[in-house]
Amino acid sequence: MHAGHEQMFRRRFFISTALSIPVLLYSPFIQGALGFSSPAFPGSTWITPVFAVVVFAYGGIPFLKMAIPELKDRSPGMMTLISMAISVAFLYSVASLFIPGTTPFFWELVTLIDIMLLGHWIEMRSVRAASGALDELARLMPDTAERVTESGDTEEVPVSELQNGDVLLVRPGASVPADGEVVEGASSVDESMITGESRPVDKEPGADVVAGTVNQDGSLRVRVTKTGDETALAGIMRLVEDAQQSKSKTQLLADRASGWLFYAALGVAAITAVAWVIAVGLNIAVLERVVTVLVIACPHALGLAVPLVVAINTSTAARNGMLIRDRIAMEEARNLDTVMFDKTGTLTKGEQGVVGVETAAGWSEEEAFEVAAGVEGDSEHMIARAIRTAADERGVQRASVSNFENLRGLGVKATVGGELVHLGGPNLIEKLGIDRPSSIASFADEAGSNAQTVIYLIQDESEVVAAFALADVIREESRQAIDALHAMDIEVAMLTGDSEDVAKAVSEELGIDQYFAEVLPEEKDTKVEQLQSEGKLVAMVGDGVNDAPALTRADVGIAIGSGTDVAIESGDIILVENNPRDVVRLIKLSKASYRKMQENLVWATGYNVFALPLAAGVLAPIGILLSPAIGAVFMSLSTVIVAINARRLRGVDLS
């Protein structure tokens, strides 16, 4: 809808402006004010009225149509005010062609329409946002599946044809087509987009799998238990759709100001009519006074007061890595009192990293990394990548290895310098039946209490020589962002699908006010509602599919740009860089933008406070009477002031 309105206002603005040029060139007032005269020829006196009528019919009619819903709702706003002004100016100007002693408002009529078209084009362009969240969710589902036949072969069938009880082959790297239970095979499945869990989840016979998740390095045979609308992903899609529809209709400040001006104009016009009839009787002068009041009631500046700030706000945000999809959410950000962050990929990097290492006597950290990185040299498992990255950061060369073998569910082994080396977790220790040195055991216990994963380096199947602690690495920017939010008296909460231990450790390290652990997608949505029910204005910051319902439900949904497409499409505001500090910049910009809107509305409506009484003739007894032409000059000055003030937003300090 916004895109269609944007193109409509844009097209009508340019065409109406082009048609307005002859109106201005042949306007007696413009010629007199600027000291020029346009060429006269037979019929040239009709150029101004004819072109003005065309501009009204083409550029003004959309405002009249959009005023109808406001009038039906008995809530007059900007469209009603514009419609009243251009209708009165049009009818009076046409009538003035046939009534001696009257002055037409044609040039004022066309410029008013042009300015309003420009303002609404700018407005529509800045609020345009395609609601593609549901489409992005749907794309997670594969179109086809490999169904296992009775003979043991496979056949490719559309996902829509799957039924409960079908057995599917899910190859490495493929998406799971339907919710189901593993009946054969072993692998790990990336469920981060659904559950928020940063580590792939091991799957063996009996384990459940969810549609839309991605199989990793092994083949699985899955018996379908849920299809179509019954799947977990479909449930998330319903939550997103419900949350989108539950967004409240927020009335803009400019509309409220327009409503006040509408009633004020009618009131002043009525008083003007009565007062002038009593003073001079019913004549053309009284009609001109009333018309002047009603036309001047709609200042050009009010039509640009908010759209100009919105446009500059949008461009300023973009230069600072923030893309605004929903203007109302951007305005609401100034009032936030709670910011809720997703943990994985938002406060943390969403990838495993080595956060500690302990070695046995006779081994240095450098030697441990040299051997471990060599053993993990060819593996694409995230733990392998974490160890290689840590070794590279320390400038350690990888050892040469041979006879590499993957031990499913246990770890890996290889030969290094003629000796057999194992690398794996607690299950490997138990399998080999060996004891850990006391220093390494203490290190592992402490890491476990902090919800960190421990990987052991074992030599000759008999001696644990090193232990590595891995965890989802916390971003340094997260600490700075949370400190800054606290300085602004904003409470910080955290949502995660991870365990209680992991959530508690991250929360304590970052100084988060409250956290919610082991949260399922539908629970993330309800946690936002829970805070909102307490009277809090909540922003949600996330990057995954599982965050989409919460992003949409929140008063302000902030999506991390490096996250999944569906999270981005569900967010009101997108942070291009994965930097939590941009949330602070966003709130600062929202506050600054709102101040500019208020200032501009004061300038725009202040013009009316000054001009309406003069137009009504309050100072007529002392010879001061505001003519339509002079009123238009004041109106133009008000517009210039509003434009200059809006541009000052570009210099706002977001550091």
Walk me through the structure.
- This is Copper-translocating P-type ATPase.
- The chain is elongated, with a radius of gyration of 34 Å.
- The chain is α+β, with helices and mostly antiparallel strands.
- α1 runs antiparallel to α3, α10 runs antiparallel to α23 and α11 (300-319) packs parallel to α24 (628-647).
- Strands 10-22-21-20-11-18-19 form a seven-stranded mixed beta sheet, sandwiched between helices. It has a six-stranded antiparallel beta sheet with strand order 2-1-3-9-4-7, with no helix packed on it.
- It is built from 24 helices and 22 strands.
Question: What does the secondary structure layout of this molecule look like, with pairings?
Answer:
Elements (H helix, E strand, L loop, with lengths): L1 H24 L2 H7 L12 H26 L5 H19 L9 H22 L5 H7 L4 E5 L5 E5 L8 E4 L8 E7 L1 E4 L1 H4 L5 E3 L4 E2 L4 E2 L4 E7 L5 H14 L7 H28 L3 H13 L3 H20 L2 E3 L2 H6 L5 E5 H5 E12 L5 H11 L6 H12 L7 E7 L3 E6 L2 E6 L1 H7 L5 H12 L3 E7 L3 E12 L1 H12 L3 E5 L4 H11 L3 E3 L4 H13 L4 E5 L5 H6 L2 E5 L4 H6 L2 E3 L5 H36 L11 H20 L8
Parallel strand pairs: 11-18, 11-20, 18-19, 20-21, 21-22
Antiparallel strand pairs: 1-2, 1-3, 3-9, 4-7, 4-9, 5-6, 5-8, 10-22, 12-17, 13-14, 14-15, 15-16, 16-17
Helix pairs in contact: 1-3, 1-5, 3-4, 3-5, 4-5, 4-9, 4-10, 5-11, 6-8, 9-10, 9-23, 10-23, 11-23, 11-24, 14-15, 18-23, 23-24
Protein name: Copper-translocating P-type ATPase
Pfam family, one: Hydrolase
Family: Belongs to the cation transport ATPase (P-type) (TC 3.A.3) family. Type IB subfamily.
